[in-house]
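Design request, tokens follow.
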């Protein structure tokens, strides 16, 4: 089976106090990893209690942070960014960074490639940051660093899908905003906001990559490897390489999710739509 549907309580939250990227008051809920069959990414929730701090460290993987609750201070690239709800950041592979929350925070965390257990891939390095320098980023500045902010007005009108790797008519009624991708500076993942309008459709297809979907609002009917599921707020869906999937808005309202791809799609042929290849089959049978 090349898919997984996880509900909000399916995986436990665990204290993450040990290790070079651990700290008292730091908790994680890993949802997508090798346990569900993924080989390219790890995805889950992370949280810091008020006053908790994660010391300066470095990873041999890439990480995206998307804040959903509270305020998170991120020391990265010589700056200390104060991130709020709907702010996001990319931590490139090999980049020194540290985390702190004054009043508490929760965020979506995406890692690609997956972390290793042996040999080690995370190391505590460097001096503590000067947290007094924490400031809200100037998101209009071209030198703000690897941080961004999502807002409603960034979503275009509903249309057929237009993105790297595919441009055609098999995905309709979609609004899409790229957040973290190759243009932003990522090398191992894409992270983007998706909204489907009622009557829209992402018809059955597969990819040469993994995808994960974190449902933020609304409901959808998901068809995954021939099995039907209803997914809603708090659910997370994963599809593996070659896993055939389709999504259709349900309940008469838009459905919105954060979508992740790892590795990044090729410039061409990132999608294989079943109905296109059925057309070829029918043509050959004439």
């Amino acid at each position: 089976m090349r898919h997984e549907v996880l509900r909000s309580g399916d995986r436990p939250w665990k204290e993450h106090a040990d290790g070079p990227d651990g700290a008292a008051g730091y908790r994680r809920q890993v949802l997508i990893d090798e346990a569900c069959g993924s080989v390219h990414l790890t995805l889950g929730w992370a949280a810091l209690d008020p006053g908790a701090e994660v010391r300066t460290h470095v990873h041999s993987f890439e990480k995206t942070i998307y804040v959903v609750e509270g305020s998170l201070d991120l020391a990265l690239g010589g700056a200390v960014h104060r991130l709020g709800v709907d702010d996001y950041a990319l931590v490139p592979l090999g980049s020194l960074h540290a985390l702190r929350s004054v009043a508490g925070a929760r965020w979506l965390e995406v890692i690609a490639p997956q972390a290793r257990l042996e040999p080690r891939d995370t190391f505590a390095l460097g001096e503590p940051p000067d947290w007094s320098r924490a400031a809200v980023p100037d998101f209009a500045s071209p030198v703000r660093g690897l941080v961004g902010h999502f807002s409603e007005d960034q979503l275009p009108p509903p249309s057929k899908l237009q993105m790297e790797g595919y441009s055609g008519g098999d995905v309709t009624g979609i609004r899409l905003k790229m957040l973290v991708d190759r243009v932003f500076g990522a090398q191992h993942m894409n992270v983007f906001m998706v909204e489907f309008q009622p009557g829209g459709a992402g018809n059955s297809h597969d990819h040469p990559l993994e995808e994960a979907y974190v449902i933020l609002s609304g409901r959808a009917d998901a068809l995954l490897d021939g099995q039907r599921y209803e997914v809603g707020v708090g659910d997370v869906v994963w599809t593996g390489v070659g896993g055939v999937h389709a999504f259709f808005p349900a309940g008469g309202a838009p459905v919105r999710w954060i979508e992740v791809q790892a590795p990044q799609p090729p410039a061409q042929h990132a999608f294989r739509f079943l109905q296109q290849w059925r057309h070829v089959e029918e043509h050959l049978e004439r």
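Comment from the thread starter after seeing the answer: thanks! The chain has two domains: 3-149, 152-285.
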